[in-house]
Structure formats: structure tokens, C-alpha cells
Amino acid sequence: MKEFDIKELIESRRGENYDLHDKYMNKTLATVLKTIGFDKCYTHAKGAYLYDADGNAYLDFLTGYGVFGMGRNHPVIAKAIKDAIDMDLPNMVQLDCALLSGLLAERLVKLLNNRLTACFFCNSGTEANEGAIKFARAHTKKQRIIALSSGYHGLSYGSLSLTMSHHFQDGYGQMLPGAEKVSLGDLEALEAKLKEGDVAAFIFEPVQGKGVNFPHDDYFAKAQELCRKYGALFIADEVQTGLGRTGKMFAFQHWGLDPDIVTVAKALSGGYVPAAAFITTREIHQSSFSTLDRCVVHSTTFGRNNLAMVAGLATIDVLEKEGMVENCKKMGELFLQKLNALKEKHSFIKDVRGKGLMIAIEFQEPKGLGQKLAWKALKAANDSLFTQMVVTSMIDKHRILTQVASHGLDAIKILPPFIVTEKEVDTFVNALDDVLANAANVTGPLWKFGTRLVKASMENKKNRQ
Known about the structure:
By secondary structure, the chain is an alpha/beta fold. It contains 18 helices and 15 strands. α2 crosses α3 (27-35), α6 runs parallel beside α13 and α16 (385-398) packs across α17 (422-439).
């Protein structure tokens, strides 16, 4: 029997991507990607770029929703994983205390450099947030969890219950009892809920993934004071912002905060092996692992696997030795400067905001009469069609991969890898300048594509009725 050959399998089936997904996986996603022009078949990737079979380079400003902070296929992380495989290490023995998970826990605790000294490893951001919910309830003996109405914490039931969006929640029945929301910036609403005395925790993203929103004042510091006052835990969801993305190792450090639990994922993986964690105080940790017979009361099969731990260790080493956090800050400031200059040039741009390399460009109804009419036609069909039109033009014309920032929000979001240089910044800014200049011509190809999107949106609405 012929030996399994993954290289031969990939080469022999290359290009079947969308047919396979249409037949055996999410055919709706395959249809959407074809409609918006994202049906590319990438063959390899390196650093800040993806490449197709013809050798065309695509600048990756989506980075797998923030997973590829170090860039794609970083050689140091790849070598560490290969070395670990070659060592034939014992893995996931389960009833043991493995070395690699202990080493990664030690590194994360040193990075935080505060009172959080106990780690739990899992596989994804939503799982880390689920654990944070459980541990908060176990420690406080309270049930309610307060989240921000514009936040996103994941799509498994507990974290979905705290993702206060009808788009994600509709159709899945009752959410987690005790999950409630307040608006970002509304301290009175937060205190009113905390005052009732049965709130286990307040969870927040320091910089929100959907829309890149964050307070410009001391809201978080005052929210932290209120949580301390009323006995609720203060949980920082750093799943997307953690490990340098915003120009600091952890985004809560922008406000000098002292959270009780911090959740991390995405960049911790190095882009190779799913890796996530939550870090908390020893006291909170022991509230769950309170007796000898409860030593595995919260557990996950793959959470401490060797390859994930190696990826995490190598990722932190690369972050520190290559100055990536500092580069996020420097390039983020350059981005905001150059994008704000575009704002003065194009009336389509309403706002540019961000921290480090987590940036949103929000659009608005333009000034020209013809442009206004075209804008209104798109909005009538679907709130996000103009933004999708921009995103599609960026990939089709300029080979730059970006995303719509959030459902119902006229904004694109960029999550460049931490390794970008001024060259990539200029490439993106010049491309966006060109796309918005073309948008000023309502008879041009950009709006013709917009008309196609309107038809597709109307057809979708018709099919759902």
C-alpha cells in the first residue's frame, strides 16, 4: 500500500477548494466568498503576504482575524515546532504535570508582571472566556455577568450570551441566564447593575474587535473601581488585543488597569497551533480547584498539548527579540497619521480610529449629489454594502485583504501583522486613496460592482421569505 503523502494530495487536488466546501462544508460561506470576489486559492504564505498559484502576492491585513501577528510561517516558530516533533516527547498524558505548559505559564505570568499568577490553557478565545465566566461564578458565588452591548466574546453558548448581537444570537434559543449588557461609557448603568449585589463579573475588550471602539477617558478605571466596590470581578478579554497588537503587550495597560482575569488567544498560537489561556489570581484559580477531588473539575483534552505550548513559547520569544510590540506602536501611529490625511481628501471617510495595528476606517454619506443617491441605494439594500464594495475593490484591484469591521457598521477594519514596515503602510493607504477616488465616479466599475451586490442582497432576502 502506498505511503500517505500530504504533499502529493495537496498538489493533486489544488484548486478544488470551493467545490469541496460547497459539497461538504459551509456552502453559504462558499457562495458569499464567490459573490464578493474573495474566492482566491492561495497556495503559500510568508510574512505579510499570501500567494496564489500564479505567484500573485496579496497583502494580508486580515491576519486570520489577528492570529498571524508574527506574520505567516515565521521561521523561528516553525523550527521550534519541528524540533519538538523530532524529540518524540510525551504528549497529553493528562494525569501528569507536563514541562512545556508549566514553562509557558511562567512566561505569561512574567509578561503580565502583576498579581495574576495562575494559568489555565485551552484552545480558543471563546473557550478562554467560557473558563473566565465559570471561575468568576465559582469564586464570587454570584451568577450575573455584565458585558458591553457592543462587545464580542465568542460563539460558544456562554461567550455568545455575552456577545450582545442579534446577528450572532438569533436562532439559537435562550442565552445564558444572568448575561446582561451596558453601553460603553455608561457608568451609571453599570453601577445600577452592580449595586444589586449579585454580579459575578464585568467583562470587556479594552479595544473592541467589532468596530475598534474604546473609551477616550477614564471609563475603564472607574468601571474597575465600581467592580471592586461591589465585589464583582474585572475581566479583560485580550483575545484579539493581547500580545502586542495595540502597541502594548496587553491593551489594558493603556489605561493602567489591574484586571482579576485576563484571557488571551489568537497571536499566542504563532499562527500554527490553536492556543489560548486565561490568567488569574491564585485565589480565584483555587476557588474552582478547591479540593483534591476537584483537581480536574475544569479541563480540556487538547489545552496543554506540546505543540501549542511550543508555539506560545516561541511566539513570546519572537515578540520580545524582534521588537514587534514597539513596531506595532510605531506603525500604528504612522497609519493613523496617513489615514487622517485621506480623511481630509475624501468626504466618504467619517472617522479613523485605532490603537497600534488595530484600526478602523468608518465611512459616511458623501457630499456629491450623485454619490449621495448611490450611497442611499446601497444602504437600502444592506447596511454594509458600501463597505463591502470597498473591501472587494481592495482585494480585486490592489490585492489587499481586509474585512468589514462589523455587521451594520460602515467601516473596514485592518489587522496588519506586527512586522509591517512603512512600505506596507503606504501600499494600503495609496490603495484606499485610489478606491475612494474611483467611488467618486458613480458610473464607474466600482459602483457597477455595487449594483451586483444590491442584486445579490435582494435575491438573498427574497429567498429567505
